[in-house]
Amino acid sequence: MGGSHFITVEGIEGAGKTTAIDTIRDWVQAQGGDPLLTREPGGTALGEELRDVLLGHREGGMSAEAEVLLMFAARAEHLDRVIRPALAAGRWVVCDRFTDASIAYQGMGRGLGIERVRSLGEWVHPDLAPDLTLWLDLPVTLGLERAAGRSRPDRFESEQARFFEAVRSGYAAIAEQEPARVRRIDSSGTPARVRDGINAALEARFGG
Ligand code: TMP
Asked: What is the topology classification, in CATH, of domain 6-206?
């Protein structure tokens, strides 16, 4: 089980990331690991402040360029203060969203283009990529149904189905381009089936 252990979890709203992260935590602990659970945007004091700016409603919205750069500003801080030190110390890092979210949401959802956003990732973390990314995938209508009524929708949750269709196609493109890193988990099924899918992916990548 050598090497670094950087796991990211991705998907549209309502895909079940929280439950998935619980499943990953349980699996890592069963291997004797002590996982660091963190999230983006966020995970540091500055990152959480930027999260409030990014998710909060504001008159006139925000330009797509400002949005993606703030996401990467939060990410740079998170990498420097949290992710890199933890990986260097040999810890498992489990992150709720990472650069794939910027590619899917800003690259496809906001229309900046996958390559433009990917180039920001290459600038901010040229030497680092997740060892495994679990993409929790389900139809947009089902995700939105599951997410409905949770709390007052934030600036992203207030988007229409068409936006999330574009985001989902962004994730599909990444999964097609990087099949060794990105595992698609069908999250439209029962919690038990999703959990089995996640455990199987972890076992395949890190087990034995
Ligand atoms: P969360 O609610 O799943 O924690 O994520 C916050 C929102 O931020 C979610 O709607 C997705 C969005 N987001 C982006 O648009 N780009 C990014 O790079 C990240 C990390 C999140």
From this structure: Rossmann fold (3.40.50)
Integer angstrom CA distances of residue 137 from 33, 75, 119: 27, 23, 25
Q: Where do the domains of the chain lie?
A: 6-206
Closest CA to 78 of 108, 113, 41: 41
Pocket of ligand 1 (CB under 6 A): 39-41, 55, 71, 96-97, 101-102, 105-106, 156
Residue 110 φ/ψ, nearest 5 degrees: -90, -10
pTM of the entire predicted model = 0.97
Residue-wise pLDDT tens digits, 179-198: 999 999 999 999 999 999 99
The DSSP string of 9-23 is: EE-STTS-HHHHHHH
Chain segment 59-116, per-residue pLDDT in tens:
999 999 999 999 999 999 999 999 999 999 999 999 999 999 999 999 999 999 999 9
- Taking each helix axis from N to C end, the angle separating 64-78 and 45-55, rounded to the nearest 10 degrees, works out to 160
- List Cβ neighbours of 195 (8 Å cut-off, separation of 6 or more): 19, 23
Give distance in angstroms: CA of 136 to centre of ligand 1.
14
Nearest to 11 by CA among 156, 153, 150: 156
* Residue of 38, 68, 69, 105 to test ligand 1 pocket, by largest number of atoms within 8 Å of CB: 105
Instruction: Give the model's confidence band at 149: pLDDT under 50 very low, under 70 low, under 90 confident, else very high.
Output: confident
